[in-house]
Write a structure and sequence with these properties.
Blueprint (H helix, E strand, L loop, with lengths): L11 H13 L15 E5 L2 H9 L1 H6 L5 E5 L9 H8 L5 E4 H9 L4 E6 L10 E4 L14 E4 L4 H12 L14 E4 L3 H10 L4 E3 L5 H8 L3 E5 L6 H6 L2 E6 H6 L1 H20 L1 H12 L3 H9 L13 H17 L3 H5 L4 H7 L16
Parallel strand pairs: 1-2, 6-7, 6-8
Antiparallel strand pairs: 3-10, 4-10, 5-8, 5-9
Helix pairs in contact: 1-4, 2-11, 2-12, 8-13, 11-12, 12-13
Length: 361
């Protein structure tokens, strides 16, 4: 069966409306029998998925199910959080975010399950950045300055811990802190705000193409990092793949196919970095040097090992949820997940020892 890539880009206003609808409307999912026919599946365009399609790893797995693969732009670079709307409306079968925003989506009413989690994050992934020419050299220099990032993302979770550790808390919905905070839900707009001086510093994934370009051109510098033993690195900064519960119950083998293809592709990319970077550059329209940076830099997040233990996943959510609530998280304070909900949020069938696990016992 022929495979093809479909690139779908949605206007920002439409994405915002979709997200609002995804949050406000209750889920109508109901139990379904496993392994229902699946003629096609929409997967997110990522560095590894474009390589997997080009090299045939996705086709190898999905041809066994008679399923055609479409790669779809999840819209996250246009509007952070867009993937939740696409997931809820059926435009995307599997979404990828860090575990904190995935948990916020769950708290906002998305009936989704985590089917894969990465091992712990890194202090290099989401540092605090300032312009090289700014004169700002440490977190202490940001007192009463303007910090901007995406609220429901690592651009908030990582710096919240960094600033708290430095005794300079960010503004939050409850009280004024010692650093002004602006929510900017677009990675390109965040970079533009930093370059134009509208904000003094930001925090985001260094491996994202627009941010990697600022690093490679020596326009920004790191002035603070997440504690290596902290809540972000060990818990909130883990990568998660999550799926609507109705879909995963109906098509568990489609999830297994995705996870198997990911493992094969990740191994191939690590062994063939230059060829992989060339494929990613061509398919996602970024410079080869930036594609290579996204693979090899310590901040990389798309090519991590999986966390086999479902208990570690459950404990990670419980740990970071409590920590952020204790430190002014207005979202999870009002809509936090119960222990029972967290237990069911992590679909143990896809972790080690589970019925659909890709991990060897």
């Amino acid at each position: 069966m022929k495979q093809f890539t479909s690139l779908s880009r949605v206007p920002q206003a439409a994405l915002a409306a979709l997200i609002l609808g995804a949050v406000l409307l209750p889920s109508s999912s109901s139990p379904a029998q496993a392994d229902q026919p699946l003629p096609s599946i929409n997967l997110p365009i990522e560095g590894w998925t474009v390589v997997a399609l080009k090299k045939g790893f996705l086709q190898e797995e999905y041809n066994k199910l008679g399923t055609k693969v479409n790669l779809v732009d999840p819209g996250t670079t246009q509007l952070i959080g867009a993937e939740s709307a696409l997931l809820d409306r059926g435009g995307l079968a599997i979404a990828q975010r860090m575990i904190y925003p995935a948990t916020v989506h769950k708290a906002n009413g998305i009936d989704a399950s985590i089917v894969w989690l990465s091992t712990k994050s890194s202090e290099y992934r989401t540092p605090v950045l300032a312009l090289k020419s700014s004169g700002l050299n440490s977190i202490a220099d940001l007192k009463d300055k303007n910090f901007g990032s995406s609220r429901v993302a690592c651009g908030w979770t990582s710096p919240t811990e960094i600033f708290t550790a430095a005794g300079l808390p960010l503004d939050n919905a409850r009280e004024r802190g010692q650093v002004r905070y602006t929510n900017i839900s677009n990675t390109v707009a965040t970079s533009a705000a930093l370059l134009s001086g509208r904000i003094d510093a930001t925090s985001t994934h260094v491996a994202l193409p627009d941010v990697a370009a600022l690093i490679e051109t020596d326009e920004v510098k790191v002035i603070g990092r997440s504690p290596a033993d902290g809540v972000y690195v060990n818990n909130a900064g883990r990568v998660a793949y999550f799926v609507m519960r109705e879909f995963v119950d109906a098509h568990p083998q489609a999830i297994v196919a995705f996870l198997r293809a990911r493992e094969k592709t990740d191994a191939w990319i690590n062994a063939n970095v230059d060829e992989a970077a060339a494929i990613i550059a061509k398919e996602t329209r970024i410079p080869v040097a930036i594609a290579r940076f996204g693979i090899t830099d310590p901040s990389s997040f798309q090519y991590m090992q999986g966390e086999p233990s479902s208990q570690v996943a459950v404990d990670a959510i419980k740990t970071f949820q409590k920590w952020y609530i204790d430190h002014g998280d207005d979202i999870l304070s009002s809509r936090h997940l119960s222990d029972d909900t967290i237990e069911s949020f992590v679909d143990k069938r896809f972790f080690k020892g589970g019925e659909y696990s890709v991990y060897q016992d």
